[in-house]
Amino acid sequence: MLGELVAGATGGLVLIQDTVECEGRSLLKTFAAASAHRGESVHVFGFEIPEEEFRAGFDPDVTARLLYQDGFTDPLRWTGEAGAFRAEEFSALGVAGRLARGPAGPATVVLDSLSWLLLRQPLAAVCQTLERIPRAAACAGLRVTRILALLHGDLHPPGLVETLHSQARAVVGVGPAPEGVGSRGDVPRLASMLQRKGTWKVLKKEEYYTVLAGFTPKALGEPAGSMPQDEDAEPPSAADPTANLTFNLRLSDTERQARDGLLLPFHFTAQKKSSLLEASANAGKIFYEPDAADDLDEEDPDDDLDV
Predict the structure, then answer these.
(1) Does the pTM of the predicted model rise above 0.85?
(2) Do 170 and 14 meet the contact criterion of CB atoms below 8 Å apart?
């Protein structure tokens, strides 16, 4: 699964989340190198390390496709460094303007790191910018295939991290691997991956990996008992809330049949409905049949009145 993510199987926002215990920049550079190998231009918005340090270790063909937007040297414009990228410039239009300076064709945006921006801009503003970057680039005639962002998870509260997870198409958490994983000379890491496919389907998986020279990933297997988890599957059945009551809320078959056969006083049968709704052929006429006590005089019908 990690190999598919690195190869570009998932577009949109991809978060690489690390901690102070285990760095994730090498994995971020692995994703960037894969984008360059696919022929995309890679726009790196760097805030935490200088350009020379970020470019170190890449193959020459990858380096040729890197366009570094320097937010590290002079982020506050104190020295007036030409071409410096400031934190307040991080907006959809600001990023699209920087992308327009590069070559035409598909592009990958790399944020190193998103945590640096979150410490200087509100979460809502950062989330809106991440959502609008592809559309702003499209208006400028550019195509952003995906956004790679490094997030230092232990610098932020859990609610903020969960908000970013909900916006991302894929999240790769980097952690240490136990002893005995990999061969001699490897620096094994554990990748805890979450990938969204379609509207609701979410896949989770864990893999061991290491990064070789040139930032090429190498799979080292999976933790024992690790199986891909599909969160779109049926949830386990909930406990029955009526199981331990002192009274019965359920009906037996006999009681259910008796209930279904009961005619309520306000219930109209089909025969009664038809008789009430049937149009009468003699509508508008009144028929009166006198009884034995009636004393009718056809010549004086009001004879019984005391007038």
Answers:
(1) no
(2) yes
